[in-house]
Structures
1.
Amino acid sequence: MESPKELEDIKVTVDAVIFGYFKKNDLQLLLIQRNIKPFKGDWALPGRLVLNNENLDDAVKRELYEKTGIRPDFLEQLYTFGNVDRDPRNRVVSIAYLGLVNPSYHKVFADSDVEDVQWFSVNQLPKLAFDHQIIIDVALKRLRKKIQYQPIAFNLLNEEFAFSDLENLYKTIIGKEIDRRNFRKKIMSYELLNETNNLKKEGSGRPSKLFIFNQEKHRGLEEEGFYFEIKWV
Amino acid sequence: MESPKELEDIKVTVDAVIFGYFKKNDLQLLLIQRNIKPFKGDWALPGRLVLNNENLDDAVKRELYEKTGIRPDFLEQLYTFGNVDRDPRNRVVSIAYLGLVNPSYHKVFADSDVEDVQWFSVNQLPKLAFDHQIIIDVALKRLRKKIQYQPIAFNLLNEEFAFSDLENLYKTIIGKEIDRRNFRKKIMSYELLNETNNLKKEGSGRPSKLFIFNQEKHRGLEEEGFYFEIKWV
DNA sequence: CCAAAAGTGTTAAGAGTACACCCATGC
DNA sequence: GCATGGGTGTACTCTTAACACTTTTGG
């Protein structure tokens, strides 16, 4: 029943979907341009084969840092893509990760074995290699869902951020208008933001107070079984 | 920087965490007894190497059917476990799946390359091979969470079930008491249960009406962006 | 003083929670 | 008629949702 052709010879890779938030309405995604076949010249998620002696998480982190200069503030496993025909060369099973960074804290560069590294707006992605468009769709869906029950969006903002930044970030990711007053009330009710003495003055209008997300307090609450939730935003 | 030792030679497997609900308070899990080393004689999740020409999902389904006789009603990818030292023989990356079945619809048997197949109460598991206890912990956590926002628990019940069965199932999985009246009101408010004309008469007490979960209606609502939710049950 | 963005409170409707008695059956 | 489990309603509290004006700054 088993022909030799069916014997296992499967490559294992990791791929990373890294989101960065630039400014109002601009959620971007980190892509690399391939300089080898197949899909040479096309854009793809950063990723590579997993080495024998490295854990999956370490493999993604290293790959990201070495090939693009990024160390994401948030990184978690997304889903594993393993259909038979995803790569024309070999059977490849890829463990995809979802990461969040504040791009202003990380300067990206292209490693020598990559043609280029660039941020792309999620609304204007180039044609992607392999099944990477599907992976990105899954990642976006997860991100949209997850910011509603876990306070992970802060990883996309500056350490000190204005409340309107958070509000715009949520609007951008969810793609809906939200009621400013109710949103603020809800977020504030969790008492997870520390107010700083600093103000953001930018363009016209009244300057805004800056806040810092209190990671320690959040971890504490999480252990007590607390759950963050923003209903339908 | 790369020694030959680091070159990739990784095996890819799938493992399945299959839950079955027997009766009040008895959530069980399907395990097989290994008859080869390592961990010979120990119990483990059903699983095996993925063949070159089969998708991951197909691999789990086939493995389950061939080795235990089960075709789960609900099956989804859980998480991928790939730490370096999970298997003493080789580097193995395992894509774990979470499945739900009604055990009375599936008679289990042990395939020839397996010592035995058995259901175990989740509260009384034997010592498990590899890192399978960790996989099970992740699966249980996911199940507890997921029944609160997706109506998947019905896959564990008979097609026609009494309301109290559902209630006990939730109590068993979540491990908390729930208010019968409020629970019923909430579930009924989704209008996803069709009442049948049949009654369940069993032991003493008033017979109970039997219901059927309306899959089609649920799929329809899901497409409209409907979300099922049972708050903290 | 005008434009722009930040900051703020109240009310009405809906959802969640707590709680106890009657009903239908078997023995 | 009693023991067992099934079936049901109401009042209170808390959360959500809708909604608009004042404040602070720069130009």
Note: Helices of chain A lie at 56-68, 132-146, 163-174, 180-189, 215-223.
2.
Amino acid sequence: MPELPEVEAYRRLAEQSALGRRIAAVEAPDPWFLKGGVRACDVDAALVGSTLVAARRRGKLLLLDTDGGRTLGLRFGMTGRLAVDGTAGVDQLLYTSRRDEPVWDRFTLSFASGAGGLALASEAGRLGRLRVNDPRRLGGVVLDPDEGSLGPDALGVTPKQLAAALGRSAAPLKARLLDQARLAGVGNLMADELLWRAGLAPQRPAASLTPAEARRLHRQLRRTVELLIDRGGSHLGDLTPSRLPGGTCPRDGTPLARATVGGRTTWWCPEHQR
DNA sequence: ATTGTGGCCTGCCCGC
DNA sequence: TGCGGGCAGGCCACAA
């Protein structure tokens, strides 16, 4: 599902193929998908006529800046995909359909130029557009999102920032890693992969890590994020294929344990994750 | 403030 | 073959 690695792929796609293009029209057929009390006409007024000038990301939030000063924030939930013209941001997502149904296009920007131009857009299908296709409608669109409500991005987080994110909390380590206000970008699959690599049990109190364990966690966080960006998906870790009934630890063969931690289904190795 | 829970969304898959 | 129930998790509202 879209965690940091997928959204980074979306960001790169937008940066590569949507920057410099002028927004000619906005289609927002689903009011539910517009967050913060924003209406379709508000999005129209904010974006139409302006040009995309930057594609940024903070955690799982994609930020598209315009030369009009407004910023479009895109969230992808668990099943949201980004496509520009005919190109999808990622090959596939776990837990969602592989189909790309037009009715699942919850938000679309039509560009004035490029990829055939607006006049050809209807004939050329999806050219000249940036689309959010989301079967389950768990994503959403925000205007000028409050970036300060998110913690530091998990890609490039410093040991000090990670320590601050964990704080002196007695909450489970995994719950703290998933808390986007403290550390932005880690989702359920990446959290399990990361803790498996770091050899830390997900239900450990966040503040109980020794200095050596904290260093291990930081190193594995950086490595895991970079690895999954390279592989192109949060589900492409080494643990993921074993996260199912009967699954065993790829490292030592121990049957994996399963429980709900931090409100999410959690798989871990009871042997080497302590 | 901190932490946990439940609900929302809906496609898909399993078992009958 | 159709159908019902359970499942997936990001996010938010809400409660203790």
Note: DSSP finds seven helices and eleven strands in chain A.
3.
Amino acid sequence: MAQLQKSIDKRTALLKATLSLVNNGGIQSASMAKVAKIANVSPATIYLFFENKQELVNQLYLDVKGSFAEAAFREQKSDDEVKKSFEKIWIAMAAFKLEHKEEASFLSQCDNTPMIDEETRQEGLKYLAPLFVLWSIGIKEGIIKDISPYLLYAFSIYPMAFLMNMDNRALCPLGENVLKEAFQVAWDSIKV
Amino acid sequence: MAQLQKSIDKRTALLKATLSLVNNGGIQSASMAKVAKIANVSPATIYLFFENKQELVNQLYLDVKGSFAEAAFREQKSDDEVKKSFEKIWIAMAAFKLEHKEEASFLSQCDNTPMIDEETRQEGLKYLAPLFVLWSIGIKEGIIKDISPYLLYAFSIYPMAFLMNMDNRALCPLGENVLKEAFQVAWDSIKV
DNA sequence: TTAAAATAAATGAACGATCATTCTTTTTTA
DNA sequence: TAAAAAAGAATGATCGTTCATTTATTTTAA
């Protein structure tokens, strides 16, 4: 019982250490030795929890994507209008990314690395299902453009990653005003 | 004279080899030894052209960004309307990314790697100056939203990276129709 | 209830491979 | 023949991973 908790704690510590290392130095710099050191564990111990480095990173991907989705859809109410519902989700996503910069940056890095395998990506995509459902409702109601959800995502959600990047580099600080403008742009792009 | 050309050729071969390696395996997998082997050169020779690996990658970044920009603005005419001009640029960018997938994927990978230093990023940004000029004209004419160019870029250009990613993974093939839809979305997002 | 035995968890050291980089030597060029 | 260009071998460091061993926990037997 306490044993199980200890296992969970150690796993969490390993994921956290990986996240932190990836965040300053990229995935390549998160070596198993460093991860072990930060998690106060022997390198060999990592392999009791994860088959190899790739699985470690993939598990972290699912873990982070999961908490991102959880935050995004937390305040969903079924009787909201489509636009209002989308706005809530959009704002919650932005808030999560601003509050959890390490997580957000990690997810961005995952977009373009071959380290995450296709199966895991598909699994991660499932977390966003409520958004796709909302869009399909919006399309049926004639509120949202009748185009591929990939297009909708590309133009209304994906840009956040760029904005967060600019915010981190202090090139375009995301205050409340800019965020409101950004949402307006996002909505304009997908509304019919 | 012929010596100079040989130098240029070798440099080009090195950049090309790096691009190819980064493309299947990520930046980490483009080791100096592999780059040398593919370029038919000794590892030591690389250091006659580039100070270290970071400079090699940064130079490649500028090189690729340069040809991307060249392709993007090739058909610009000064008497085009703002919308028409933007459409030409947008289509040319998409065409470049579709025709040069290795280059496009490399640039995407560069967005989120610490390997590219801030100075080089700024330098690369300068290549896009004509686009920013166009936008400022559009803003003055009341055609384009009066918001930060970072926002305009995030919502009208950056999404291409996501779409190319989906196209490569065969999740959302970018035919002519989808491309036209995508441009419409891009324009809707930034138009006033 | 306690001591011994068995099992599980965790370790640090070590593996071969590969990394970026440099050194010395050889080849090419002028 | 002198100088420049390129080569291959070698450097120490670090990579992901595994191995033999120790430590901790649980089970068994008295």
Note: Residues 3, 41-45, 48 of chain B lie near DNA strand D (CB under 10 Å from a C1').
4.
Amino acid sequence: MKEKETKMLTFKGKEYPCCASLTMGVIGGKWKTVILFHLTDKTLRYSELRKEMPTVTERTLSLQLKNLEEDGVIKRKVYTSKPPLKVEYSLTNFGKTLIPVVRAIADWGHEVIENNEV
Amino acid sequence: MKEKETKMLTFKGKEYPCCASLTMGVIGGKWKTVILFHLTDKTLRYSELRKEMPTVTERTLSLQLKNLEEDGVIKRKVYTSKPPLKVEYSLTNFGKTLIPVVRAIADWGHEVIENNEV
DNA sequence: CTGTATCCCATACGATACTG
DNA sequence: CAGTATCGTATGGGATACAG
């Protein structure tokens, strides 16, 4: 009988104690907001994303793209059936609802840099 | 000579490849946005924060509060010199610039729940 | 009441090599 | 070109006991 008293919020099979942590579950981690930031206004190929994010490893980029796809915020489109492959990533309609959030996050970081620069 | 070509952004001694990741460095992780969310409009004591976040452990709450304090977004005020202690946490002026970001994050999570609920 | 100290585990992430 | 496979490490965070 000793269940969790707190009513958890559920999204995509995961539970969160707060609406803020739900969002962080979707866009949190070291790279997901960066990916979303670059996809805000354009579709990008895998290799283009790598160029925009030179310090991420292939493995991590791949995993994070998959996570974002599973949460329904980005979509993956394959254009060729044989190598060399062409794959493009873009925001889904649901993912586009995150644009204000990503913009607020990027803007804040930008302002901090502006005001801290000597 | 083989230095990082990418110009990194620096804040509080940490380096970030992107303005979005800088913000995530400050508010990322499982609990920091939740803490900021609860401190958005009011000052709270340690025990009050624990009541608002029943699923976080003491250790983690303590560590995250310390991180937030080190980044200058919250301030810790002690009201007693002998036990029982009274300590209050609140946003700094700098921390208040995060309010729109935290609000955007919380709002998105809230809307997802609203629209997914059956 | 407000934390620290230990201990431990899960996961995130990196480095590198390799494949369809 | 667009990833996977494998391995290793670092860190975040939980459980619990205890201290100022």
Note: The longest helix of chain A spans residues 99-116.
